[in-house]
Amino acid sequence: MTEKQKNLVTRAITGALFVAVMVAGFLAPHYMVVLFAVITGLTIWEYTGLVSEIEGVSVNRFISTVAGVYFFVALAGLRLGFVEGFSVFVPYILTIIYLIIAELYLKNENPIMNWAYTMFGQMYIALPLSMMNILAFQYDAHGNKTIDLLLPLSIFIFLWTNDTGAYCAGSLLGKHKLFPRISPAKTWEGSIGGGVFVILVAAAIGYFVDNPAQGNTMSIVEWIGLGIVVSVFGTLGDLVESLFKRTLGVKDSGNILPGHGGMLDRFDSSLMAIPAAVVYLYALAMI
């Protein structure tokens, strides 16, 4: 077996295990919370490690990671009803304040860059991933808590479909570069093809889960709208991470997933798609 074939097998096995773990995480609410708390922690840890390699930048990896995980768990507890009131976020706010004030005493070379990279990690990773709790744990018109794990799972189904469709369409038809300065391999044909695949999958989900007797159920058209939003912003998220890596001069964000790179490489699309989906669903008054 050649090296290329070995890499292909490794990538396939890792990809299958990754999808299996992700889907299993949506079988129960506590599974999802644990899974994405771990994902949040690993992704922030990876991110802080990357930016700490920049000359003159010093980011507290441990405290930044703990803060991001706490924010995710705090929002999960709030949405699930385990805690009440936004006082649950006070420790998080105090931690961020500490990270800012600490620069007064650490005498680092470039405190502004440290602040910028620290806060960007929270905004770019912790906040979007924490919004999974908003998608999964909702409240109906009467204020009763409802749990819908299909909705957050569908975000990843759309992202995976978009990637697969874009790869297939791009390989067969791709001629016009989408963003050659940042990602030379991406084409307009591939992106459009990925979007078409997502629309078909979204329509299928909308058809099979449609239940007029149940409140807050989205129509097929609304599911298609969600798919388009995820497809567009998922592609933008991929490009944002590509720009981030190009700026740092790295090919992969990490090597935790053999054949697939790091956590940022796997969840880059979701970091833009999740907030966009939340805004879209709020506009429809579905969450």
Describe this structure in words.
This protein folds into two domains: 28-148, no CATH class; 149-287, no CATH class. Strand 1 and strand 2 (145-147) form a beta hairpin. 70% of the residues lie in helices and 5% in strands. Helix 2 runs antiparallel to helix 6 and helix 3 (61-80) packs parallel to helix 6. It has helices at 3-24, 29-51, 61-80, 90-101, 103-106, 111-130, 132-136, 150-173, 188-209, 220-248, 263-283, and strands spanning 137-139, 145-147, 177-179, 183-187. The strands form two sheets. It has a two-stranded antiparallel sheet with strand order 1-2. Strands 3-4 form a two-stranded antiparallel ribbon. The longest helix is centred in the last third of the chain and has 29 residues, at 220-248. The chain is built from eleven helices and four strands. By secondary structure, the chain is mainly α.
